[in-house]
Amino acid sequence: MTEPAISTEALVKTYGRNRGLAGLDLRVDTGEVYGFLGPNGAGKSTTIRILLDLIRPTGGRVTVLGVEPRAGGVALRRRIGYLAGDFVVDGRQTARELLGYLANLRGGVPRRRIEELADRLGLDLGRRIKGLSKGNRQKVGVVQAFMHEPELLVLDEPTSGLDPFLQQEFVALVREARAAGQTVFMSSHVMGEVQQTADRVGIVREGRLIAVERVEQLRERAVRQVEIHFEDPVDPGTFAALPGVDEVTVDAGRTLRCRLAGRADALVKAAAGHTVVSLLAEEPDLEELFFTYYAGREADRVAA
């Protein structure tokens, strides 16, 4: 079996009486995009800081690209690209000067590569960092993470501050990295971003990994709010009896609103029996998805 890009076993991190990680077992395979999800305080950023040797674990074992982070030193850092959700650096330099400096630390990066990434993101390399907005500073962070084509990208809320168009450009960069055989470990609260890029998703709660799912499986568990406009009046009882459908209301006889859990097949087929004017299905945000997932697991545990 190929050695994983990231591996943790019974990883523990305590802060005095508080526990950030409580025995985290994690495996990220080489060449995959792994979404690391969980509510605030679940242990995501603590895990990432341990992987990068920014903090040390209290107990357990961790390897990154086959090496313990503490022992890997500069040689390991050069093989990793890291981006925090709020990219903060010395503001006196221009973006070009900063990226050139970081490129030299990583063994050198062709200037054309930096300029190409900056152009894709609409980043003015001649401006000083202190004069950039949060979104433009984040663009600098994206460039520095990707520019040296690292074996492993560790991205902590990477699109914070980026507008929707640039978030899509970021998605394209992640897909290109995967196609090139790079590994991406990404913490995110943008559900669409995860769905478009990740192969697998790990859900962490209270410092433990409680589930690992394929993205397709995660979507099937999601609860969506659905709104359908019909040309003619419909009977709400027809839809309320469908599997996975509840909280059905019909306004003026023609606008149906409901909550849908799981697959949409039965609802779509029932709607197809009428003339549909429009249909809107809202994806849940991650906090809602986590709550639904946790509640389901808790119910299963009680039933057992």
Automatic annotation (TrEMBL):
Q: What is its main location?
A: membrane
Q: Does the keyword Transport apply?
A: yes
UniProt keyword annotations, A-Z = Antibiotic resistance, ATP-binding, Nucleotide-binding, Transport
Annotated membrane topology:
Peripheral membrane protein
| Pfam families per the UniProt record, alphabetical | ABC_tran
Q: Under the GO molecular function aspect, what terms does this record hold?
A: ATP binding
Q: Give all residue intervals belonging to the ABC transporter domain.
A: 6-231
SMART domains assigned to the protein according to its UniProt record, in alphabetical order: AAA
The protein's name: ABC transporter ATP-binding protein
Q: Which organism is it from?
A: Micromonospora zhanjiangensis
